[in-house]
Amino acid sequence: MHVTMIGTGYVGLVSGACFSEFGHEVICVDKDASKIERLLKGEIPIYEPGLEDLVARNVEAGRLSFTLDLAEGMKNADAVFIGVGTPSRRGDGHADLSYVYAAAKEIAENMNGYTVVVDKSTVPVGTGDEVERIIRETRPDADFDVLSNPEFLREGSAIEDFMRPDRVVIGAESERSKDVMRELYRPLYLRETPIVFTTRRTSELIKYAANTFLAAKITFINEIADLCEKVGADVQAVAKGIGLDGRIGGKFLHAGPGYGGSCFPKDTRALVHTAQDYDSPLTIIETVVKVNDDRKRKMADKIIAAAGGSIEGKTIGILGLAFKPNTDDMREAPALDIVPALLEAGAKVKVYDPESMGEARELMTQDGIEWCDDTYDVIEGAHVLSFLTEWNQFRALDFDKVKKMMAEPVIVDLRNIYTLVDLSELGFDYHCIGQASRLRK
Ligand code: UGA
After folding, report:
1. Using one digit for the tens of pLDDT, what is the confidence trace for 185-199?
2. What domain range is 243 assigned to?
3. What number does the ligand 1 atom closest to the CA of 256 have?
4. Which residues of the chain have pLDDT under 50?
C-alpha cells in the first residue's frame, strides 16, 4: 500500500517508519525544510532508541522517503495520515487544531482517486467531522473517507509500542475504508493484536480517556505515596499489593515527582475543556491536573526540607532533567518547576542529563545553573543530590566515591531508584517517595 504521513514529529516519524517496516511504501511530508533536510541525510531529529536504524533500513530498501512537497507525497496515496502536533492553545488549554485543519485543506487540494484520510494526531471529539467538512468544502467532487486511528506509543519505547501494541483503535464509518485499514495493519492481524473498530467520535474519545485514566492512576499512587510517608507504609509494596488485582493492574503505579511529557499534561487539560464545553464536567480529571501541577512545585520543598530547611548558599546536584528516561524531551518535565524553585530559594544548582541538556538549556535560562559534563561532575561539592529522572546510568553509582565527593551526604530520590538499597547504612540521609526517610547511621 502507499501511505503518506504528514508531520515528522514523534507520532508521524515513528508511525511512518513502522508502516514501511510492515512492507508498505511510505512518504513522510513536513513543512519544516531543516527537518526534511536532516532526515534525507539520515539524521533523526529526535532521540528515540532504535529509530535511526529502522529509518536507515527502510530508506535503503526504498520503502521510506521524505519530502517537503505534499503533491509529490500524495501522488499514489491509498491512505494519508495526519500526524501533526496538537499543542495546548495558549491561554485556554484547548487543543490547538490549526495544524490539523491546514493539513486537511492541503490534502483536499492534492487528492486524486479514492483516498482514506486518517487522523493519528490526538484530537478532540468532533475533529474528524470538521476535517471532513473542510475537505468537502475545498473539493466537493472528492472521493474520500475520514478516519480516526489514535496512536498509543510511548516515547522511549515507541517502536516496540507500535510493532506490538496492546490494541489498535480505528474509528471508521465505511466498509471500504475499514478494508484499507485492515490491509495496512495486516502484520498485526497475523499476530492476533486486538483491532477495535468503532465510530470516529468514539475512537477520538478513547485516546483521551486512555491518557487521562493513566494520568489519574499515576496521580492516585502519588497521593497514596504521600500518605505512606506519613503513616510509615511503603508505596512500592502498596502498588504491588493492589496491582496484582487484575481489575487494577500493576502498570503505571510508579510514584514519582508528577507526570510530565508532551501528552498527559496537554491531554488532561484538553479533555477537561471538552467536558466543560459539553456541560459534562470531569471533576476527577480537573483534580488530577491540579494535584499534579502542585506536586511538581512541592518537590522543591522536599529537597529544601532534606537540606535542613534552607538551601541558601548551598549546592544542589540534579541528576536527570528529561520528563522520563530514554528521551531528550523536556516538555512539562518536573525539572522545569523544581530547578527554578531551588534557585529562588538561594541555591546553586548543578545539573546533568544524558540526552536533554540541549533542550534544557533553551528552557532553563535562569542564572545560577551549572551545566555539568557527567554524573560525578554534578555530585562534586553538592549538599543534596536529587534524582529527577530514572536513567539506567544513575542506577549503580559508587556510593563510597559519592560520599567522599559530596559536601553533605544527603540524597533525595524522587524516582525511587535506590529504595531497596539501605543508603543510611552507607552514611547517607536518604529521602524518597512513599517511604519514611532513613537518616545516616
Ligand atoms: C503517554 C502514554 O503512555 C502513551 O500510551 C501515549 O501514546 C502517549 O502518552 C501519547 O499520547 O502520545 P509518554 O508521554 O511518552 O506516553 O510517556 P509515559 O511513559 O506514559 O510517561 C508519562 C509521564 O508519566 C512521565 O513523566 C513518567 O515519568 C510518568 N509516570 C509514568 C509516572 O510517574 N509513573 C508511572 O508509573 C508511569
Report:
1. 999 988 899 999 999
2. 213-432
3. 33
4. none
